[in-house]
Write a structure and sequence with these properties.
With 345 residues, the chain is mainly α. Among the domains are: 73 residues, Alpha Horseshoe (Serine Threonine Protein Phosphatase 5, Tetratricopeptide repeat), CATH 1.25.40.10; 119 residues, 2-Layer Sandwich (Zincin-like), CATH 3.30.2010.20. Helix content is 65%, strand content 4%. It has 18 helices and 3 strands. It has a 3-stranded mixed sheet with strand order 1-3-2. Helix 10 runs antiparallel to helix 11 and helix 11 runs antiparallel to helix 12. It starts with a helix and ends with a helix.
């Protein structure tokens, strides 16, 4: 290190500037720190965190890589790199590999727990909910009760349809961190599925107040307006496509029921679902003319879930159109790539 006193002084100045929202000034101080110590892992990590906070994810990843290259044992940069790969780049397999590398080293308890938590997040996004739950509980065993860990546990249990168990985990999380928007929002989701709509709406409002960018209020519309939007979306389809689905009913439900969640292995937050036999499957019943399809064929739209993904009424109408076309694509036997290529996603 060329000038250690200058290096640490610049880092202190950068932290103060960043905390005060003076981003450019903070970056200037970090640049100055790197002139005092070009291999300063803390400075590279600080630059990465600022870039990430401001949406400059590629630059953030480069800075985290430089920090790890400069100091392979510098855990904050290694953890930041993993989380960035998970949250921003969806490189979940790569993140798992980096976590496993970390676990081969000697780690403090807090860092080890964080690695298990990050591995749980990667597995969650890979739809391995059981694996995610196992690792999250290992994190809690290593570190003890942590609000974020309990909140995520509640989220996983909710996605598995274990609503009462999810409720208990979320209550523990709120006892540890009452102002967690994430936990309050998922508590609202659980209450909604348990049938307590009044309490759910109160919690949705509270989550929106705590984290308005992440959890905006649901856009509620009357049932008749929702049905009208669905009918409008159907009428906007090409005539030939409408002929194909004339014998497949389109139904609107508030939420997917617990049995449906477990039988179909779907998220409680699913927007729509096709149930039945795709038209391209061997032995599928006719789709055209007066011949009727199987009574089990149907497309479901889930009103309250769609209301939660919209920012305003026009975007809700648009999402209804998108979801209906998407499920029609599944009815016609298309996979996700085909649906996207044909503009039905």
């Amino acid at each position: 290190m060329q000038d250690p006193d200058r290096y640490w002084d610049c880092l202190d100045q950068a932290v103060e500037a960043s905390g005060g929202g003076r981003v450019e000034e903070a970056l200037e101080w970090l640049d100055e720190a790197l002139r005092a110590n070009p291999q300063g892992a803390e400075a590279h990590n600080g630059r990465g965190e600022i870039f990430w906070d401001n949406g400059r994810c590629d630059e953030a990843l480069r800075e985290f890589d430089r920090a790890v290259e400069a100091a392979p044992d510098f855990s904050p940069a290694r953890l930041n790199r993993v989380e960035l790969l998970i949250e921003e780049f969806q490189e979940h397999e790569d993140a798992l590999g980096l976590c496993d590398e970390l676990l081969t080293t000697s780690l403090e308890a807090a860092t080890e727990a964080e690695v298990y938590y990050l591995k749980a997040k990667a597995l969650f996004y890979l739809d391995d909910l059981e694996g995610a739950l196992f690792l999250l509980r290992r994190a809690t065993k290593v570190q003890g009760e942590v609000g974020v860990y309990r909140g995520f546990e509640g989220q996983i249990l909710f996605e598995m349809g274990c609503f009462q168990r999810a409720l208990r985990s979320l209550e523990r999380s709120l006892a540890l961190d009452p102002d967690s928007g994430h936990t309050v929002y998922h508590m609202a989701l659980v209450r909604e599925h348990l049938g307590d709509r009044k309490e759910a709406d109160r919690l949705f409002t509270r989550a929106a107040n705590l984290s308005p960018d992440l959890y905006p209020l649901p856009v509620r519309i009357e049932d008749r307006d929702f049905d009208g939007a669905a009918a409008e979306a159907l009428g906007a389809l090409p005539r030939e496509l409408r002929r194909y689905i004339q014998n497949c009913p389109i139904l609107v439900e508030d939420l997917p029921g617990l049995e449906l969640i477990r039988v179909e292995q779907i998220s409680p937050q699913v927007l729509g679902l096709f149930q039945g036999v795709p038209t391209t499957a061997p032995g599928a019943s006719p789709t055209m003319g007066t011949a009727s399809r199987s009574d089990t064929d149907r497309i479901l739209l889930f009103k309250r879930n769609l209301e939660k993904v919209a920012l305003d009424r026009p975007s809700l109408i648009e999402q209804i159109h998108i979801t209906l076309k998407h499920e029609i694509g599944h009815y016609l036997g298309m996979d996700e790539d085909q649906i996207e290529r044909l503009g039905l996603a």
